[in-house]
Amino acid sequence: MILPNGGVGVGPDHAERLIHSYRRLTGNELLPGPESSGSLTERLFLSPIVVLSHGTEDDPVLNYGNQAALNLWEMDWETFTRTPSRYTAEEMERTQRVQLLKKVQEQGYADDYTGIRISRSGRRFYIKKATVWNITDEDGRYAGQAACFSEFEYC
């Protein structure tokens, strides 16, 4: 299997930012289990937990999605990482999404999010118990937001 390489937000630095920001804010591990089973980047990409993130643009663009996220949204890496994150939700769900992201921006994270999302082909799915958190770099500067969840059902 070929893992994504190159591009914005890819590689060990971004994987570490996601994992360390999650741990610092929630007190939990994003990747539970033994650390000796592959590189951090590989473990995150192959995790069964859906993990995705976007950058800091005015209209944030997705900059990471692990294989579970790519499968769920029915996109390849190149398409996913060129997609404005607002397009992961249907238009009628975007107001709720904006409110959530503002809450996360102010509080650091939210661990109780539920909402409807839509794949590239138009397939709707209901996310349950998602955690959304702010990503910070090594110097504590804001670097975007990420989300993870393992529970969803198709609508």
Automatic annotation (TrEMBL):
Pfam families assigned to the protein according to its UniProt record, in alphabetical order: MEKHLA (PF08670)
InterPro entries: MEKHLA
Ranges of residues in domain MEKHLA: 13-153
Listed name of the protein: MEKHLA domain-containing protein
Species per Swiss-Prot/TrEMBL record: Paenibacillus tyrfis
